[in-house]
Amino acid sequence: MTDKDSDLGRLLTAAQEGDRVAYGAFLRAAVPLVRAVGRGKLARPADLEDFVQDALLALHQALPTYQPGRPVGPWLGTIARNRLSDALRRTYRRRAVETEFDDGLADTVPQPEGDVPPSVNLGPLLSQLPERQRVAIDMLKVQGMSLKEASEASGVSVGALKVAVHRGIAGLRQLLRKDVDHG
């Protein structure tokens, strides 16, 4: 085991024992490793960030599966690569839908006029999301608040806001697919 792997192993073992500070340090150290797995494979920065968040959630869920004393790199890498496969499948599906849409309907879709923000068209879909997700998306994506500002304004932790936005965006994608399929 390398020194870095050994350090991550100590942090991960402490996190399994309930040490929140060690868990935070482990996650901060894991982000660049996870991002490196997706970099170059996911073209859009938003897709890369969605993948990183998804992989961090998967790491959290898999925390009990880590066996202390074993190398962290292969454990972390396997989880990240599995989440990358899922992200790539979503990207390919989305591209197929976007290509169909672009090829068949692009000229028939009315464009917003003037300064009407594109988010106005999402209003009916946003209203179908659970309130927590809707509020998080509104604060972070529509109003453009930082995570810290949104956390202070809502009283919701930064981590919970990230999860709510991630789930909300996934929900919007499903609603958009349904809307395209039935529209």
Low-confidence parts: 99-120
**Overall average pLDDT:** 80
Helix content: over 70%
What pattern of helices and strands is seen along the backbone?
A: HHHHHHHH
Secondary-structure content class? mainly alpha
Number of H/I helices: 8
* Strand content range: under 5%
What coarse outline follows from CA principal-axis ratios? Answer: globular
Biggest sheet architecture? none
Task: Tell me the Rg in angstroms.
Answer: 19 Å
Distance between the termini: 55 Å
Number of strands: 0
General description of the model:
This protein has eight helices and no strands. The radius of gyration is 19 Å and the shape is globular. The protein is an all-alpha fold. Mean pLDDT is 80; it is low at 99-120.
